[in-house]
Amino acid sequence: MVNLTRPACARLTPVLNHAEDLLTGRGYGRKNIQDKDVAFKEKLPLSLKNLVSNQSTKDGNKACMDPMMEVISCLSKYDQNQAMCSKEIGSFQNCFKTFKTQQDKNKAFRESGELPIGPRAKMTGAQMNQYMKNFMPSQRKGELNPMSAYRKK
């Protein structure tokens, strides 16, 4: 009689080898579906809404963060003595002054009603709505397509 050790017995038992093809990748079992293998079936016509939401389009950059941190570190180093940090305070004030003029210029351009020009122009929601009025409006009302899109063909 042949004595099988516990690992050898486990390898020979078909029940324990049930999911081995999935674990070792031998080519059996479920596989991922590639994007190129998925066929696009247009069940409803592709259409945009006629309006763009007016969400804020702020970028994540804060005004003069680095000069402000230099001022804070200098003040903490010299026990809040502003006379010792005049260079850092001056650079922060210059930075903030340029930031404010740029912000006012951008605000005046936005309120003038002109559209930005160029291939990489960034528009607000109101500017995008104004630009989309130049084109034929979609038949879509609100969230849903018109009822004619849902009828059987």
Rg over C-alpha atoms, rounded to the nearest angstrom: 32 Å
Classify the secondary structure makeup into a structural class: mainly alpha
Q: Which spans of ≥5 residues are poorly predicted at pLDDT below 50?
A: none
What general form does the structure show?
flat
Order of helices and strands: HHHHH
End-to-end span in angstroms? 73 Å
Question: How many strands?
Answer: 0
The share of residues in helices is: 25-40%
Mean pLDDT metric: 79
Task: Quote the beta fraction.
Answer: under 5%
Number of helical regions:
5
Report on the biggest sheet.
none
Describe, in plain words, how this protein is organized in 3D.
The chain is mostly helical and 153 residues long. Helix content is 39%, strand content 0%. The chain contains 5 helices and no strands. The protein has helices spanning 6-12, 20-24, 65-77, 86-112, 125-132. It is flat, with a radius of gyration of 32 Å. 2% of the residues are buried. The model has no long low-confidence stretch (mean pLDDT 79).
